[in-house]
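Design a sequence for this backbone.
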């Protein structure tokens, strides 16, 4: 009970972990809940996932519940296949309990074979995806999301798809129903067609909370989640006449 009150106080948690073995066992999961990976060098051969080796050495990887890849620092894409070399993948595979995944500046074109070999291992546990400034086609982004059939929360910011010849989604491949029951956050999102594809792939949308800023397809979202929505945050400048009709009692 004491440790729970301190989960946002990292220095105190560290002190508690050094007190005795029992306190160490209770404090450690909170100290290593989030793993942040960042670009240390513009050199594409630089081992960027090195922190994984240290965590594995002390048996801490199973405690990681959130993995976040930070923004590019040197105008050089770094979340690319070369980042996941054989040694890094050995440790990456040991992340067994990841529930949240956040990636900034993900360029799907850097992964011509898709991202399943890298992130598909989280399919059984992942509940939340955050993508900031993703680059790629609607189908590429959709194929990434459907890697995670248990997904509940989606956050996408600053996304406008690349030009593509759109393929109709094969609704026979609809995923197991039951996901998309949490929170949806969209900022500067201009792809209503992608929202339709996501709804088809997941068997509908049942979000209970939505935060929408400068979004195309707001009417579609409000209609799809009319029976489940509990909280809604929108911006007056974004409310079209169609949305006003949906919002009216």
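Sequence:
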């Amino acid at each position: 009970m004491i440790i729970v009150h301190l989960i946002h106080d990292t220095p105190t948690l560290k002190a508690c972990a050094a007190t005795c073995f029992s306190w160490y066992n209770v404090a450690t999961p909170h100290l290593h809940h989030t793993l942040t990976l960042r670009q240390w060098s513009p050199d594409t051969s630089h081992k960027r996932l090195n922190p994984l080796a240290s965590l594995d050495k002390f048996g801490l990887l199973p405690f990681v519940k959130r993995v976040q890849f930070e923004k590019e620092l040197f105008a050089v894409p770094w979340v690319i296949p070369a980042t996941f070399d054989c040694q890094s993948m050995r440790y990456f595979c040991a992340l067994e309990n990841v529930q949240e995944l956040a990636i900034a500046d993900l360029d799907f074109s850097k992964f011509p074979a898709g991202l399943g070999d890298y992130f598909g291992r989280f399919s059984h546990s992942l509940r939340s995806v955050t993508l900031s400034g993703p680059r790629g086609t609607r189908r590429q982004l959709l194929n990434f999301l459907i890697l995670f059939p248990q997904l509940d929360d989606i956050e996408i910011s600053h996304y406008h798809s690349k030009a593509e010849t759109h393929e109709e989604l094969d609704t026979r491949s609809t995923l197991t129903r039951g996901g998309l029951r949490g929170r949806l956050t969209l900022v500067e999102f201009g792809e209503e067609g992608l929202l339709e594809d996501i709804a088809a792939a997941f068997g509908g949308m049942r979000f209970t909370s939505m935060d929408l800023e400068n979004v195309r397809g707001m009417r579609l979202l409000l209609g799809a989640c009319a029976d489940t929505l509990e909280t809604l945050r929108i911006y007056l400048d974004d409310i079209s006449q169609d949305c006003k009709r949906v919002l009216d009692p």
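Residues 21-31 form the longest helix (11 residues).
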